[in-house]
Amino acid sequence: MLLNYIKIAWKVLLRHPFYTFITLFGISLTLTVLMVLTSFLDHLFGTHYPETRRDRSLYIMQMIQRDTAQSGRSTGPMSFRFLTDFVKTLKTPERVTICTMYNTSNAYVGSQKIKLNTKYTDADFWRIMEFEFLEGKPYNEQNITNGENVVVINDDLKKQYFDHPDEPVVGKTIDIENINYRVIGVIKGSPVTRPFTYADVYFPYTAPKSNYQQSGMRGRFVSIILAKQKSDIPAIQEEFQSRIGRIPLPGIQDGWKYNALEVKAEPYAQNFLGTILDGGPGLRTIFFGIIFFILFMLLGLPALNLVNVNVSRIMERASEIGIRKAFGAPIRTLVWQFIVENIFITFIGGAIALILTLIMIQLINHSGWIAYADLTINFNVFAVSMLVCLIFGLLSGVAPAFRMSKLSIAEALKS
């Protein structure tokens, strides 16, 4: 029976090319936008190069200090000393790294200025992140202890700075802010959408201007904790919070007295959205309102338009409905037939959308809009796309199916 419904749907598509074009155009365009958006969200929050262990990592991005009345708050990164004392000494994790988010600096090639995004890290940064080294190797604890002026650069900076980028540059020097550094390694760069790993130049945390010796709890550093296995994450969070809970309160930061202190070790997506979700009910309402509006515009409105198209398409088959009812076809069978037909048509549109999405993703990846963009259609993106196809088919097919199935036999035969 299901195969017969699909055959009927195919014949209906071939019978009216104009309706077919309008229907498939609306479906494929909507699903293409949704697939590209899903791929971008996966690019942002999924486990990708070089953060290939993100599924078992915890991120510590900011410290929140509040006063007694909860009316004032101070938020920002932490000092290297604080993270060394309270994070590096954790017993449960496999490894812990301390680094900065990316900062800015300048280098010069003749009179041409190159704007750089820079990052200060410890040696464990290179053990947690799985960068692809095109040349050389990362700096280690010995380089840091010796206070060596060494750097790791990405392949894009190599092309910009050196006269002969096809030749090896390990061992050569690069002048950054009037300080000479020896290049110890060259990596394939990380996308700018991954701020914990993105940079053009990576310095040891002992390099000039890192301010790693800053006293107090606040500074410019963040931390990433790697669990031995994913199931260890709750234990790591509990151990970390027990240490934070032992910090004496109230305290004073830059002359401001705070009575509450909050530092969280969270998975990446939760950490990324934490600022919005912790920003009070007003900010949360705006955020979820925008999400709902986008989903409605991308899914709701096209579905409503397709409902009208489907009603017109099915109205032409009113006589068919009348004849089938006259021979005793129940409403449930008619509704099921139209829903199956609509889902079949939607999946055809989904197949077209998949091809268009692959083209769009390749254009985005090679356009340079996002440095080192690596949007893909993996299993998660594909599964979400198929679910959207199913929902879209149901949304645009149920209402017309019910309306047509409830036509009386006489009314249907007159149409």
TrEMBL record:
GO molecular function, one term: transmembrane transporter activity
Subcellular location as annotated: Cell membrane
Superkingdom assignment: Bacteria
Topology of this chain in the membrane: Multi-pass membrane protein
Residues annotated as domain ABC3 transporter permease C-terminal: 292-408
Claim: Phosphoprotein is one of the keywords in the record: no
Assigned GO CC terms: plasma membrane
UniProt xrefs under Pfam families: FtsX, MacB_PCD
Keyword line: Cell membrane, Membrane, Transmembrane, Transmembrane helix
Residue span(s) of domain MacB-like periplasmic core: 20-241
InterPro entries per record: ABC3_permease_C, MacB_PCD, Macrolide_Exporter_MacB
Transmembrane segments: 21-41, 286-307, 334-361, 381-402
Alphabetical list of PANTHER family matching this protein: ABC-TYPE MACROLIDE FAMILY EXPORT SYSTEM PERMEASE COMPONENT 2 (PTHR30572:SF18), MEMBRANE COMPONENT OF TRANSPORTER-RELATED (PTHR30572)
Protein name as it appears in the record: Putative ABC transport system permease protein
Higher taxonomy: Bacteria, Pseudomonadati, Bacteroidota, Cytophagia, Cytophagales
